[in-house]
Design a protein that fits this description.
Organism: Tagetes erecta (African marigold)
Family: Belongs to the disease resistance NB-LRR family.
GO molecular function, one term: ADP binding
Protein name: NB-ARC domain-containing protein
Keywords: ATP-binding, Leucine-rich repeat, Nucleotide-binding, Plant defense
Oligomer: single chain
Number of strands: 65
Distance between the termini: 115 Å
Mean pLDDT: 84
Number of helices: 26
Structural class: alpha/beta
Radius of gyration: 39 Å
Strand content: 15-25%
């Protein structure tokens, strides 16, 4: 068979080769003359390609399955290389039309690569761009073999993976791209089958090990390598065990998509990209794509907006609901919204249950940890969008006996933090907006509530009922549940039959309209109740609540307005009560009866901000206490009837203490606090810090420089304190304790208000043993009002151990007059996680980073400052700062910087000069102004730039075209030396057009820059496709956006070189050099979405809208014109008619003669308000176009409601043209100090005020509507 085949090939190719060469020669030489040759060549090429592809399929299949190929076939492929080259050259000119009906001979079809499929589901939303760019960059990098996209079910992981495959296929980066759906029920053999199918491999072996060897050999055949996408991974898969060849010598890349971070980590994935939900605007846009134009129906808009909000950015939920609701009635939309607001699973909507809820349910089912499942259900009981305190989960979990083998509360807390982290890694929870809280996505919460409602408490499942509605539901109040949550601002009654929950263990109540009397009936029959949470209600006294509770409750947490504790009757009966918490209470005293809750292990008074006294004996009686927080009470120097610090000594089990001591003078001499494991101890500090029972925090004001610290605080600082706040001249005493360990354990350090010379540095590294890391765990550093402070670290400039400062994320420096720099350059390489740097009022600082390299450094020597995670840089009122850092061959890279604010830096002139130019400190004499950002600086992710009074910069960007694709806000104020914002260097003679697009820029404010002439130079065209707000104010020399041509023609601010297709708000003010706002070359759509226009103090303008203006302004609603001295009319005689305009306000334009012509005025059909004031030369508001003076046409402005004319001493008429005017909605006319106004119009005036025909306007004063006329002579209203 092979012999016959090869023989055919030889004969065929010999003929085809001869014909192809001949025809190609003719084609190349005479293509313009011999069309028949073209036709013939096409036919020969088609035959050649069809035959070659058909014959090559069998050898390709053999290669995929590791079979030998006849040598003569390989010889043939080599012999006809020249033919292939000619074929390639020919097909550049000809379109290959391959027929689709090729008959199958005797081979399997090659596998269809995923890249061939169009990923039409992917939307290139802004929030998705960084993730997909990171994926493409990873694929181009050889350092890592595996990466993962992790996110909650329905967040778009699969869609993104498909898009990556499509893009990679287009770039031809890999030989094969294989897409395998793993799913939760996978096994290794199934994964191997999917991989083999994608590779076109037929297994010979039947066992796992044999197939592994076959797969590895097949994957190693690829020259460019392979990309394998494993979609929907739930558990660990041993990739090497099933055949993946990993290593630097193999280019085999694996992309995972998963709802479990833990599973990806277990597979050796170090680079995990978390895919968040869409932003609100993106979710709304996606819903609009699915639903179509009906989304913008005014009757539907509000409901649709709320539905989009309920989806909380989950793409699958948005798409499924949009698809299901498309073309449905308003009633269906409203019913769906009601169910979503009640967190009801929408099982009756096609696709929602399968595509949205199923994967989320699977995330819960695969937890394999019953404790984690119960904690998740607990979180779902709290209101939608709530920040659920982890401390509440601890207290409920203890009361419900969720945790086995854990006795101490501190151990339970550690367990709960671990479980919430696990739930976050499975995307069932997310980090809350407040510290020590978590949140549940609304759709995930609906799934949790459904699971809890369907659970059977008799089968050891945790069941729960959530009632967060305006009324009690029907028919479900008599079932057995473990937990019930009732949160409602409307429920005010208890069901007549009561709440018959006999097996209830937990109840949450937040119903402010339920009275105390009715509240006390709620708990009847709940004999198994263990945990009670009550919040957002008014309870006069604690005693009035606790008397109605079952005596066996374990945990009672109130967060209610409460006046006092009251007289608690028989507290000793509550023998099981171990947790008692008061939140937001107004109690001032803890009475002695509280001490009779003898088995209490936790007493929380942390948010009792009026607490002043605790009765003596209460604390010492609670000998089993493990955790105590005494809120706002001050300890030390107690008066009679108040507890003393000595009582704390009896609490031998105490592990957490929250306490405030009046001053360090009252600290006991014995080490009272030494054995605490968690604590918030405030000594002399009145700052209200968030209390967390998981904290290790000391807040200390110490003024004495010669006294030691008592109470064991010195040992806490030395041992394990993580958050430290120090102030006072004696803080050196506390710093000594921290220095001993090199600040190793401190995570958050704040030091302020010290005038002692002993605190010039936080740490002198010269006295630290060589190689010892310092500040290894520091995450946030704040330094304020340190009058003698010179630096954070004193050292010789050599590099620090790698872990030093390696976790630092935020630095705040304020009012440090002796500080000259932040760090030496050798320290910067350790700041790998620094995200925010804020410096203000450091008057002696010249540069932020001190660079030791000389300006004569060789160009080949790398000298770089890299802060890879910095997202925010703010420098304010650092008056002597001239640069960020200086040095030869220096480069600055902040690849993640999003916010840059430089304000009141009068001497700052560039980021990284080679030397500091001292001329800038001598009134600019001899100074050559520079660019703020040039080729040595990289801010490729910059989103917001603010420059205020940065005195010495000529332009912001200079040199090559900058990367400004992410810029969204640009704010430049009082930069008096700035001549342009952007300057691109170009050859003196060039025909290449330079164009720059600010793709995401939404707001630009340029204010108070005296020398600013152009926005950009060296640019032919600038585009602002997303710009919404533009304000150009107090720019006396500003002429245009792009530099004008050399022909000398007067420039316009807005010409055909700049485009704003989405601009909504425009303000131009104090542009003293501008004679024209708009060029007559503007496209009609240029300002197609402008809503508001304000023109102020542009003294050379003659009109706002000239006659030859092409732009239409179809959406303009508001026009304000003020103090334009040369303005003669707002609209020229043939000015554009703006039919959407609603209000016109014109003030203090002394040469204004009229507002517009009659023809223009009649086109202002939406006008509602006219307000003209202090225009002394105005003779008429509406001028006659042709001076004919009379017309039969009726002027009808049916929406005009208000006319105000004031201080117009030369005004004779409102309209000079004689015509009838219909102003049906005119309800208010105010005329002040217009002494020469004779009549409103020369003809009939029909208004809602009155009908006035050629008479004094005062005659309308008898109307029931408002008309005010004030004569300048009498100064009185008539």
């Amino acid at each position: 068979m092979v012999d016959v085949l090869v023989g055919c090939i030889d004969k065929f190719l010999a003929k085809i080769g001869r014909q192809l060469i001949v025809k190609t020669q003719h084609f190349l030489g005479y293509v313009l003359y011999y069309n028949n040759y073209i036709k013939s060549l096409k036919e020969q090429l088609k035959k050649f390609e069809v035959k070659r592809k058909g014959v090559s399929l069998e050898p390709d299949e053999a290669t995929r399955n590791e079979e030998s190929v006849e040598p003569r076939v390989n010889e043939w492929q080599q012999r006809f290389t020249n033919v292939d080259i000619i074929s390639e050259e020919s097909t550049k000119f000809l379109e290959d039309e391959v027929p689709t009906n090729i008959p199958k001979i005797s081979y399997d079809a090659p596998p269809l690569a995923i890249g061939h499929q169009s990923s039409t589901k992917f939307r290139n939303f802004e929030s998705r761009i960084p993730t997909i760019n990171r994926l493409i960059k990873w694929l181009e990098d050889d350092s890592e073999n595996i990466i993962s996209i992790c996110g909650m079910g329905g967040s778009g992981k699969t869609t993104m993976a498909q898009e990556v495959a499509t893009r990679v296929k287009g770039k031809k980066m890999f030989d094969e791209i294989i897409f395998i759906v793993v799913s939760k029920d996978h096994n290794l053999m199934m994964v191997q089958e999917g991989l083999a199918k994608g590779l076109g491999l037929r297994f010979k072996a039947t066992n796992l090990e044999g197939r592994t060897d076959e797969l590895r050999k097949r994957l190693l055949q690829s020259k460019k390598g392979n990309l394998v996408i494993l979609d929907d991974v739930w558990k660990h898969i041993d990739l090497k065990y099933i055949g993946f060849p990993f290593g630097k010598e193999y280019n085999c890349k694996v992309l995972l998509t998963s709802g479990s971070v833990d599973a990806c980590k277990a597979m050796g994935c170090l680079d995990i990209l978390r895919l968040d939900v869409l932003t609100p605007s993106e979710a709304w846009s996606l819903l609009g794509e699915v639903v179509g134009d009906s989304l913008y129906d005014p009757n539907l808009h509000e409901t649709a907006s709320e539905i989009a909000k309920c989806c909380e950015g989950l793409p699958t939920a948005v798409v499924c609901l949009g698809r299901a609701l498309k073309d449905k009635s308003h009633e269906v939309w409203k019913d769906t919204l009601k169910k979503l607001e009640q967190s009801i699973v929408l099982e009756n909507i096609v696709g929602v249950k399968e595509e949205v809820y199923k994967s989320l349910q699977s995330s819960y089912d695969l937890l394999e940890d019953e404790e984690a499942k119960k904690i998740f259900i607990l979180c779902c009981l709290y209101p939608k969008y709530a920040n659920v305190p982890i401390e509440s989960l601890v207290r409920c979990g203890v009361g419900l006996k969720f945790f086995t083998g854990v006795d101490l509360l501190i151990e339970v807390r550690d367990t709960v933090y671990k479980l919430t982290d696990k739930l976050k890694s499975h995307f069932l929870l997310s980090t809350g907006d407040r510290k020590s809280t978590v949140k549940v996505h609304g759709v995930v919460r609906a799934v949790g509530i459904s699971i809890a409602f369907k659970s059977n408490p008799n089968m050891e499942q945790f069941s729960a009922l959530v009632i967060h509605e305006d009324r009690w539901p029907r028919g479900i109040l008599n079932r057995d549940y473990n937990a019930v949550s009732v949160v409602s601002n409307e429920i005010s009654e208890i069901p007549s039959r009561g709440l018959n929950f006999k097996k209830l263990e937990l109840i949450q109540l937040a119903c402010p309209k339920i009275s105390l009397e009715k509240l006390n009936t709620v708990f009847k029959g709940m004999n198994k109740l263990r945990v009670v949470e009550v919040w957002n209600m008014y309870i006069p006294s604690f005693s009035s609540l606790i008397t109605s509770l079952p005596r066996d409750i374990f945990s009672l947490c109130t967060d209610c307005k409460m006046d006092n504790i009251g007289d608690v009757i028989r507290p000793e009966e509550f023998t099981n009560l171990e947790i008692l918490s008061f939140g937001r209470c107004d109690i001032e005293e803890v009475p002695v009866q509280v001490g009779k809750f003898a088995n209490l292990k936790l007493l929380d008074l942390s948010r009792c901000h009026r607490l002043e006294r605790i009765s003596p004996g209460v604390i010492s009686s609670l000998r089993l206490l493990e955790e105590l927080d005494t809120g706002s009470k001050w300890w030390g120097d107690e008066k009679e009837g108040d507890v003393s610090l000595a009582e704390l000594e009896s609490l031998t089990n105490l592990t957490y203490l929250g306490i405030r001591v009046k001053s360090s003078n009252f600290l006991p001499k014995n080490p009272l606090f030494e054995k605490l494991q968690r604590y918030v101890i405030s000594v002399g500090v009145h700052i209200e810090k968030t209390r967390s029972f998981n904290n290790k925090m000391v807040l200390l004001k110490h003024d004495s420089t010669d006294t030691s610290l008592g109470g064991g605080i010195d040992k806490l600082l030395r041992k394990n304190t993580e958050k430290v706040f120090l102030c006072g001249d004696g803080m050196k005493t506390a710093l000594k304790e921290l220095v001993l360990s090199g600040f190793q354990q401190v995570k958050n350090l704040t030091v302020e208000s010290c005038n002692s010379e002993e605190t010039a540095y936080l740490l002198d590294y010269n006295y630290i043993p060589s190689g010892t890391g310092v500040f290894n765990n520091l995450e946030k550093l704040t330094m304020k009002k340190m009058w003698c402070f010179k630096g954070i670290l004193r050292h010789n400039g050599e590099g620090l151990p790698p872990k030093s400062f390696s976790r630092l994320r935020k630095i705040v420096l304020s009012v440090l007059p002796e500080l000259t720099h932040l760090f030496k350059q050798s320290v910067v390489k350790n700041l790998v996680l620094l995200e925010s740097l804020h410096i203000e009022y450091c008057i002696d600082m010249e540069q932020v980073i001190l660079n030791p390299w000389s300006s004569t450094l060789e160009s080949t020597t790398e000298n770089k400052i890299l802060l890879p995670k910095l997202t925010e840089l703010i420098m304010n009122d650092v008056v002597n700062l001239v640069c960020f850092s200086k040095g030869g061959n220096l480069q600055v890279e902040f690849p993640q910087l999003k916010v840059l604010k430089l304000e009141y830096l009068q001497n700052f002139y560039t980021f990284c000069p080679e030397e500091i130019n001292m001329a800038f400190k001598a009134n600019h004499r001899g100074a050559t102004f520079q660019s703020l950002i040039d080729h040595k600086v990289e801010f490729s992710s910059l989103a917001e730039l603010t420059l205020t009074n940065v005195g010495n910069i000529k332009e912001v960007w200079c040199g090559q075209m900058p990367n400004l694709v992410h810029l969204q806000g640009l704010y430049i104020k009082f930069c008096h030396m700035m001549e342009q914002v952007l300057f691109i260097e170009r050859p003196s003679i060039t025909t290449i057009e330079e164009r720059i697009v600010f793709l995401k820029l939404k707001e630009v404010i340029l204010f108070g820059s005296n020398r600013l002439t152009y926005f950009c130079r060296g640019i032919d065209h600038v585009e602002f496709p997303q710009l919404r707000v533009l304000r150009l104010c107090w720019l006396p020399h500003f002429r245009s956006f792009c530099q004008e041509d050399s022909n000398g023609h007067p420039s316009s601010v807005f010409d055909d070189k700049v485009t704003f297709p989405n601009l909504e708000t425009l303000e131009v003010s104090e542009l003293y050099s501008v004679k024209e706002l708009w060029s007559n070359q503007l496209a009609t759509s240029q300002f197609g979405k402008l809503i508001s226009l304000r023109v102020d103090k542009c003294h050379k303008l003659v009109n706002i809208f000239p006659s030859d203006l092409q732009a239409q302004f179809p959406t303009l609603e508001k026009l304000e014109v003020e103090e334009c001295d040369s303005l003669e009319n707002v609209w020229d005689f043939h000015g554009v008619q703006i039919r959407s305009l609603k209000s016109v306000h014109v003030y203090e334009c002394p040469n204004l003669k009229n507002m517009c012509s009659f023809n223009t005025f009649k086109g202002l059909s939406s006008l509602q308000t006219i307000d003209i004031c202090k225009c002394e030369m105005m003779e008429t508001v509406v001028a006659d176009d042709h001076k004919h003076g009379i017309t039969d046409e009726v002027l009808s402005l049916v929406k005009l409601e208000e006319v105000k004319l004031a201080f117009l001493r030369n005004l004779n008429y409102f309209s000079h043209k004689k015509c009838d005017m219909e102003l049906a909605e005119l309800t208010q006319v105010i005329v002040k100090y217009c002494p020469n106004l004779y009549t409103f119009s020369h003809a009939t005036l029909g208004t809602a005020l009155a009908t006035t025909t050629d008479s004094k306007l005062e005659s309308a004063a008898s109307s029931s509507r408002t008309i005010t006329i004030q004569d300048r002579k009498t100064d009185e209203l008539r």
